[in-house]
Amino acid sequence: MTGSSGPLSLDEAARLLDDLPERVLLAVSGGPDSTALMGFAARRPNPAGLVVATVDHRLRPESAREAAEVARAAAALGLPHHVLPWDEPHPAAGLPAAARAARYRLLADLSQRLGIGAIATAHTLDDQAETVLMRLSRGTGLAGLAGMRRAVTRDGLLLLRPFLAVPKARLVAACRAQGWAYADDPTNADPRFARARWRRHAPLLAAEGLTPERLAALAERAARTEDALQEAAGAALAGARQVEGTYAAAPFLEAPFEVGLRMLARACEAAAGRPVPQRLERLEAALDALRQAAADGRALTRTVAGTLIRLDRSGAVTFAGERLRRRGR
Ligand SMILES: Nc1ncnc2c1ncn2[C@@H]1O[C@H](COP(=O)(O)OP(=O)(O)OP(=O)(O)O)[C@@H](O)[C@H]1O
Fold first, then answer.
1. Locate the tRNA(Ile)-lysidine/2-thiocytidine synthase N-terminal domain: which residues (predicted)?
2. I need a surface site. Which of 50, 54, 289, 307 has the fewest CB within 10 A?
3. Is the CB of 31 under 6 A from ligand 1?
């Protein structure tokens, strides 16, 4: 897929979209990638379960008109369309992240209202490459290097990125070949935003061999490695469990460090009863401290991402997170 060039063909797109569920919300900004997603999806044998949504971030004066244009294009394809305005106050700092979070929330709310269990976005191989570069620049670990996943479940909602292995140029070419009109978002080239700055470096990096394809391949390999480590950590944690929130300490101490880190993260998450953002540096420091204390025969208490971790001298390690504390443990 990534080696071929020219417009993405109807057959290729049909294969990529084949495993989208029947009822799916298509997130369409009106740019070329998501316009192609909408155009190709509308050609599926049974398009009746498709719904299109456009978030109007209200960041640019043209945004309402662009959303209305997507509505017209969707109607021409026979697809229902919703405009979702972001009408909360916009923060001055961290605008791209806030806009992304708001977009996700608005799309998730609509899916829930309509009883749709899946959202598809049109992220491309180039988006994946930019994501990897940006995460590298922030000092990511292996999980971050894995970039975006083709399919993830978040809050019970399936998020799908069927075009994640497709170069953006092939989607732009497909829009031109199929006569699908799209808008160009000037913020994609606005140097105030990190993603746009990285995009400007892309030709320079590619000239040295660091192409979007290679970055995306790295992400795929990292994802495979991360999944294998997670599986090993899950099995080791299950084997170490004594009662809820309490585990034998030895498996945490004897596992390879990378597996131990993930065991710690999973045990914290289980104790919190929900996914909690965990800083890699904090997990690394906590595992180091646990190992040192065990080697010295000391007890230890540490907090990681709101979870109290206690290593006692009997060889048990206890995780007291929100969920268990609520139950009065
Ligand atoms: N305002 C929006 N409304 C609905 N979906 C959006 C919106 N902005 C982005 N998305 C979805 O998220 C994906 C990735 O967002 P990103 O900002 O990278 O895309 P974009 O530059 O708008 O790309 P595209 O060419 O599709 O429009 C898009 O392909 C689209 O599926």
1. 24-200
2. 289
3. yes
The reply to whether 143 falls in a domain is: yes
Grouped pLDDT means (10 residues each) for the chain, 329 residues: 75 97 97 98 95 93 92 97 92 88 97 98 97 94 96 95 97 97 82 87 94 97 98 98 95 96 95 86 95 94 92 94 58
Q: Is 29 assigned a ligand-binding role in the annotation?
A: yes
Is 245 labelled a binding residue? no
Q: What is the 3-state secondary structure (H, E, C) of the chain?
A: CCCCCCCCCHHHHHHHHCCCCCCEEEECCCCHHHHHHHHHHHCCCCHHHEEEEEEECCCCCCHHHHHHHHHHHHHHCCCCEEEEECCCCCCCCCHHHHHHHHHHHHHHHHHHHHCCCEEECCCCHHHHHHHHHHHHHCCCCHHHHCCCCCEEEECCEEEECCCCCCCHHHHHHHHHHHCCCCCCCHHHHCCCCHHHHHHHHHHHHHHCCCCHHHHHHHHHHHHHHHHHHHHHHHHHHHHHEEECCEEECHHHHHCCHHHHHHHHHHHHHHHHCCCCCCCHHHHHHHHHHHHHHHHHCCCEEEEECCEEEEECCCCEEEEECHHHHHCCC
Residue 235 lies in a domain: no
Task: Give me the domain span that covers residue 38.
Answer: 10-217
- Give yes or no: residues 260 and 182 share one domain: no
